Amino acid sequence: MAEQQQGTERVPTVIVDDLHIVYRVHGAGSGKGSATAALSRIVQRKTSPNVREVHAVRGVSFVAYRGEAVGLIGSNGSGKSTMLRAIAGLLPPERGRVYTDGQPSLLGVNAALMNDLTGERNVILGGLAMGMSNSEIREKYQDIVDFSGINEKGDFISLPMRTYSSGMAARLRFSIAAAKQHDVLMIDEALATGDRAFQRRSEERIRELRAEAGTVFLVSHNNKSIRDTCDRVLWLEKGELWMDGPTEEVLEAYEEHTGGK
Ligand SMILES: Nc1ncnc2c1ncn2[C@@H]1O[C@H](COP(=O)(O)OP(=O)(O)OP(=O)(O)O)[C@@H](O)[C@H]1O
User: Fold this and answer.
1) Which one, 5, 38, 236, 251, has the greatest CB density within 10 A?
2) Measured in angstroms, how far is the CA atom of residue 91 from the centroid of ligand 1?
3) Atom of ligand 1 nearest to the CA of 75
4) pLDDT tens digits, residue range 121-149?
5) Has residue 160 been placed in a domain?
6) pTM of this prediction?
7) If you take atom 1 of ligand 1, which residue's CA is the nearest one?
8) What is the side-by-side strand order in the sheet with 69-73?
9) For residue 116, is it within any domain?
10) Which spans are transmembrane here (predicted)?
11) CATH code for the domain of 80
12) CA 109–ligand 1 middle distance (angstroms)
């Protein structure tokens, strides 16, 4: 941190080295999908004829540093979410490696929220799931609720999560995750569901998290959110890293490619 403030040394937090991720989809296409067919394949040591492979990330390499906010862009299905899940350690690499300094948190997954519990219980549960202590959660509880804005239109925090709109649920998840300082925080389209006022608050919080020396990854189809929060952008297409550079440079090329802002 001290070195970073002096601007002399950059501390790597995530190293991705020639990463390949392959999904195996079982039961794809038509064919025998019965339990007896599966058992006979196991006995005969044959692989299923219906396993299809999706090579979602193809040889991506980059290094992310402390204090960076990195945007991930690319068309639908280009591999952005897959990359985040792999960095979070949720998907095993087919080839290559991911090294991380500290525990990466993928927003929405780490906060294991329960639909039948009230917002209030979920704040506590999510906090515990992220490794916060009871007293830490108590201390931050009101800030989390205020930040989420869940109670702006009445006492919703004491209602079960299943009664929330998708935007409200996303706001609560973001608020819980953002209450903690993360070594590496990954946010997958979380800002898209909130309204504009909430998006602005979230962007502000992302900048703070970054200043507190973590690394933030943000997947978004909203180029403005990326412009407002990230200083570096990775552009993925068909699982390959097409471009890695300063936000403005990469977004300009991307907008030219996609034909508009
Ligand atoms: N669980 C899965 N099983 C099999 N294939 C998957 C799975 N999840 C994603 N894929 C495939 O992997 C590829 C990359 O998907 P991914 O969700 O990472 O893309 P994305 O860039 O995040 O897309 P979007 O912008 O639409 O969210 C796609 O071809 C998709 O069909």
Assistant:
1) 236
2) 12
3) 25
4) 999 998 888 888 999 999 999 999 999 99
5) yes
6) 0.80
7) 23
8) 104-106, 184-188, 215-219, 69-73, 232-237, 240-246
9) yes
10) none
11) 3.40.50.300
12) 16
